[in-house]
Design a protein that fits this description.
The chain has 2 domains: 101 residues, no CATH class; 73 residues. It is an all-alpha fold and 177 residues long. It has a two-stranded antiparallel ribbon with strand order 1-2. The chain contains 7 helices and 2 strands.
Length: 177
């Protein structure tokens, strides 16, 4: 029996779920719907892709070029869905590799860059979550703030653990095993 490939299953399920929640909680209602908050909370690190569009994408691809929405989703929602797919692919890939990982792997430059990006996203989520907690934009901010802060802490912990292990493996005391 073939093994379940989480790197393929998780992005498909989470992207479909996020798409349904975003479409159900349409922005046309005039307020931020609970379904949209749940979608943002489940895949909080993907908010970095949405923010990337909000900061840079409007200059590269203005809304009036493609229209305000595609298939009932706004352009920033499509960026968010792209982020959801990337996020859950990386989570699934990490879980797949954990099953068959050797005990120790020497640190690489790619691993260092990935962990530094992980720390940057964690810091972004921390700032965004605290900003939304102190100045809520919606009725029930805990639906998105608590998961966002939780994701931030998890990403910080995982990146810091890898960095400490890498530092210890590179800078061992002379004569130590």
């Amino acid at each position: 029996m073939p093994k379940l490939r989480l790197a393929l299953v998780l992005p498909a399920i989470q992207s479909a779920l996020a798409g349904i929640l975003l479409h159900w909680g349409s922005q046309r209602l005039g307020y931020i719907h609970t379904a949209r908050l749940v979608s943002w909370g489940l895949s909080a690190p993907a908010m970095a892709f949405r923010s990337l569009y909000l900061m840079v994408g409007r200059f590269v691809m203005p809304d009036d070029w493609l229209g305000a929405s595609v298939a009932g989703l706004y352009i920033d929602d499509l960026y968010f869905l792209t982020g959801v797919g990337v996020l859950w692919y990386l989570v699934g890939r990490s879980l797949d590799r954990r099953r068959a990982r050797p005990a120790f792997k020497a640190p690489t430059a790619t691993g260092l860059i990935a962990r530094l990006l992980m720390l940057a996203v964690a810091g972004y989520l921390l700032v965004l979550g605290l900003g939304w907690a102190w100045n809520p934009h919606f009725d029930n901010p805990s639906l998105v703030v608590v998961p966002m802060l939780t994701w931030s802490l998890i990403l910080m912990f995982l990146a810091a653990r890898w960095l400490v292990t890498a530092f210890r493996s590179v800078y061992r005391a002379p004569g130590s095993p």
